[in-house]
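Morning F.,

Quick status update on the modeling queue. The single chain you submitted on Monday has been processed. Sequence for confirmation:
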Amino acid sequence: SGHTLCAAAALANIRLLNEKNILEHVRDVGPYWQDRMKAELAGHPIVGEVRGVGILSAVEMMRDPKQRIPFEPDLQVGVRTAAALFENGVIGRAMPHGDILGYAPPLIITRKEIDIIVDATVKSVDTTYRALKAEGAV
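Structure tokens below.
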């Protein structure tokens, strides 16, 4: 048996993606997202890598980014940074393995919203770094 209701919903979604030129929009803002995130976090003392495709991305934090040495798990750097990010008005997901913030924003995100997220991310990573430094963890 087919799932006609689900198929109808999927077709309606595809129709909207085409009518509203959503994929073209993502092709425009995706590189902007990646470029801003990488430029703002490049060389940060605890950022090991900024990676992603389009607007799907992740920021990985490490005790020693140059040697790719991770933080001790009990420091919960990803969770702490996600909490700081929330305090700065943005929801970012602390991934379950490693100290990684994951982002999957809506396809209709604007450049202004990207700027808000990137700025909040930098501020939050800085907050976490200062706390870790005060604790002697870096």
